[in-house]
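Dear all,

This email documents one entry for the complex benchmark we are building for the journal club exercise. For each entry we list the sequence lines for every component of the assembly. Then comes the predicted three-dimensional structure of the complex as a token string, followed by one or two observations. Please use this as the template for your own entries, and keep the labels exactly as they appear.
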Amino acid sequence: MSATKMTGAKALLEALERQGVKHIFGILGGAILPVYDELCRHPKLRHILSRHEQCAAHAADGYARASGRPGVCFATSGPGATNLVTGIANAHMDSSPVIAITGQVPTNGSNSSYMIGRDAFQEADIIGITTPITKYNHQVRSAAEIPWAVNAAFYIATTGRPGPVLIDVPKNVQTDVAEVSFDGKIDLRGYRVAGPPHPLQIRKAVELLVEAERPIILAGGGVITANASDELLTVAELLLAPVATTFMGKGSFPEIHPLSLGNIGMHGNPLANKMLLEADVLLAVGTRFADRATGNLDSFCPEAKKIHIDIDAAEIGKNIEVDVPIVADAKQALSAIYERLIKQVKKKTDSPWLQRINEARKLLNPPEKAEDGKLKPKRLLQTLRKLLPESTIVTTEVGQNQMWAALYFKALKPRTFISSGGLGTMGFGFPAAIGAKTACPDRHVVDIAGDGSFIMTEQELACSVVEDIPVTVIVLNNGVLGMVAQWQRLFYKKRYMAVKLGRSPDFVKLAEAYGAQGFRVESIAEFEKAVKQALKSTVTTVIDVPINSEEDVEPMVPPGCGLGQQIGDY
Amino acid sequence: MENNQKTIVIAALVENKPGVLHSVANMFRRRNFNIESITVGHTEQKGVARMTITVSGDEKTLEQVVKQMNKLIDVIKVGRLEPENIVSRELALIKVNAPDAKTRTDIINCVEVFRGHIIDVSPETLIIEITGTSDKIEAFLNLMKPYGIIEIARTGVTALARGLHSIRIEE
Ligand SMILES: Cc1ncc(C[n+]2csc(CCOP(=O)(O)OP(=O)(O)O)c2C)c(N)n1
Ligand SMILES: [Mg+2]
């Protein structure tokens, strides 16, 4: 092993470069200054100055989801680190490989610099704070340890079920000089990544699938993470099994495919929700059976024998009892199932089950809403789909905008629909779009936003303009915190409390104030024109689309109900 | 409480480094698992500590406890010790009132029956050391109550599986 003398700061940046890092989102401060000073000498690492650390973490998250490569963010100690917390929790819930590096007040230096644990200026126990929201976190205590910490962080964040990792670097460790080596072993004896699927379990799964008359595949975010969409498609087509997706699984299966049922869940596609009730075998892949996806568990997919593939053993049996558990990578497991299936079944072109599905597909077509002069989300999103190239990456904010996007904007490819599923973080979509655009500069990135959410992280307009990372934000502007207003309308007898946004800023002027361009559109024709201009633009575009403030997302499975108990028009 | 609750002992070999106890305890709290007792100590292997955790819940919960423990990166190995197949011990130090000779002899007799030891004597008090299963310690404490217990310190349960079944890191 070759060792070189260098500072901790240099060791950190070299280790990141060796991991292939090209972009870092962050905001600096006192406790991370030595690292930023070293950054002057690393022109290959592009630092993107976020305008709030939460957004640095979201950008790193969007970067990771769009590219499949880990996203990196930096923050200083104390408030910088605590500002990351929402972003880290968001990445944790959605299993996204974010590497967060925080400065920390000095530890074990000379007596006068010993500060950690003494409530020093800008000291926050970020290790304690992020323990439950990271896959792993670690405070380095010596410069020599840094390459190990970085390599372990990347290994842990990206393997198995991915997740965020935080490394806390005390200031004196950044300046200390040590003999540093980059080729040490990672050696994590407590960390095991699931191996290939167990052949016996694959055999049992295939037995069930071969016998199945009404199989359904449920694809979750794990299919996207494992890059297993091709395998999913081959298994589905061989079995002629319709594919429903969870919210996180959206994009894992082309939603224009004849076997696609769309999303299940609280605001799922009625077809997916209804058909699950009739399935006799469920093949669930890379999903944790989240409550918003399953509805009341007692009536979830009641008739079906269940096969559950997940790389995280703890997810199996956590929310739902299954008949055939398979702890494995989704890609490997689906390939193994296919290899075995192909020997036993002949490819069909039709089945009674498919006919039943197609009948239901016709019946469950929701009626067009009466026009009331305002633009309708459904029509807007269907129009948007037509305007955007297939490769376009769409992010969303949280609320009605997000659920409309899930219902009406058809995702065609994995990693092109990026949204905060588990944590439901308003303000995620815009910084995530900046991250996605950074990772995929040749593709268009569009954030489908709500007015309330956009205001939460709108300051990143500065980042996107100054750093020249142009994206498009489409604000479905209903003047309310629409989703909670909908709950008050449906479940609190229209007692509206604190949901009116009142006089929102003029989003066109707001965009212009930041040096971005803004359009307000009142008709589909204007909308089309604005989107086309945005796609041609070299600067970020905000499109303000006024919509009715009392529009509901329909249908809906009320909280506590089963997926069969959807209310609303469909 | 549901009646299918049971109590088991979980033995975990963990990296002996700062923060591990925190991450384990944090996981238990966050997932609403019930720790009845927890003990931590060094093992025969350098850098490895052993945690012995007594936990109760229904079967599904206990299964989750083991899986969630396994997920923690600094937890190297987790084993589930069923009550039927283990030897378990707890140690208690008990300070009781013993102001006169009659009381002292009575207490000393009890201690002998329970194979404990008197480890400190003062004019007013005795300190008793007693080792055994938690049931045995409970029984002894009940006996001491009438004399007036001043202070108790219990270690919590520690346990090993009987025979060859072991929770250790294979070299
Ligand atoms: C950070 C955060 N705060 C609060 C909420 C609760 N919440 C969920 S949806 C919603 C309203 C979102 O409003 P808007 O962005 O305008 O979207 P709309 O539903 O109107 O489309 C709120 C407040 C949340 N999800 N995230
Ligand atoms: Mg709104």
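Observations: The longest strand of chain B covers residues 86-97. Residues A 397-401, 424-426, 450-453, 476, 478, 480-484 surround thiamine diphosphate (ligand 1) (CB under 6 Å).
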